[in-house]
């Protein structure tokens, strides 16, 4: 049991003893790829939470700037944070008998709230958590009982993921009729504005200017802006043999959006940024189609747009899916699991 209690989310200068029995590994691209490779899903499943861009957003600032990986013998997961809570992100493998007791030690040592969120756990993993919780006197709560957020109890899985079959989309879009009518209407509305668009990159524009644009877009919601910090750092690095791509649309030299994706597997990619200025109706849909064209040129068949916090965001994403989409991949919904450590921490 650690002897030093520190405030949750200590700064890099804070010193405290991590509990033995779980590996706490800094989240770097090399560590991520080496450890997650052991638990890859079948190809062509378009699993949204399998990418580097997703992990560095979900785990940001948890012990290290990009976050942390938790590792045991046959288990790996990301470690994130949210409103005074620790978050287990995308757990994979087999949960050991001592994982939850050790995690409870970590919660106590960091003075965190005694509720730990578990995100992106598949049905097998959820069963393992429930079984282990029973044995170890840990409570399991539904996210409607202890919520991530009042307006989004399951965060970005409040509504299911939307997966777009790019071959179906590009086949159906020119056909007219009712299919994809809403999307064509938005594209036409932007076209009629005759606004000159150029595409740039984070390196060209500069991270500070992109952050200013995001701050203007999200207004007072600083948490939304913060979620892009790691992504901009990654996208501004020199290109190598990495799996992500992006562009920034500009109008008369001013950035008006950010669109980014990352490869998930040989057939699939996830879209992790789709921000567009509200001052140009149809800009978001037009740029999303441009992003799909770039992805298709790289051999992507399925674009996972992720789940949604709100019904409005879900409806925006569904505009890109034809009603009779024949794509073989369907979006999932991984409801949040909440582990209640109060019983073993002797808290009310």
What does this structure look like?
This protein is an alpha+beta fold. The chain has two domains: 23-151 and 334-345, Aminopeptidase (3-Layer(aba) Sandwich), CATH 3.40.630; 163-318, Aminopeptidase (3-Layer(aba) Sandwich). It is 33% helix and 21% strand. It has helices at residues 29-36, 52-58, 99-109, 123-135, 166-172, 181-193, 202-205, 207-218, 222-226, 229-235, 283-297, 311-318, 342-345; strands at residues 23-26, 68-72, 75-82, 85-93, 115-119, 139-142, 163-165, 198-200, 244-251, 254-255, 257-263, 268-276, 302-304, 337-340. The strands form two sheets. Strands 1-2-3-4-5-14-6 form a seven-stranded mixed β-sheet, sandwiched between helices. Strands 7, 8, 9, 10, 11, 12 and 13 form a seven-stranded mixed β-sheet that branches.
SSE inventory with pairings:
Elements: E1 23-26, H1 29-36, H2 52-58, E2 68-72, E3 75-82, E4 85-93, H3 99-109, E5 115-119, H4 123-135, E6 139-142, E7 163-165, H5 166-172, H6 181-193, E8 198-200, H7 202-205, H8 207-218, H9 222-226, H10 229-235, E9 244-251, E10 254-255, E11 257-263, E12 268-276, H11 283-297, E13 302-304, H12 311-318, E14 337-340, H13 342-345
Parallel strand pairs: 4-5, 12-13
Antiparallel strand pairs: 1-2, 2-3, 3-4, 5-14, 6-14, 7-13, 8-9, 9-10, 9-11, 11-12
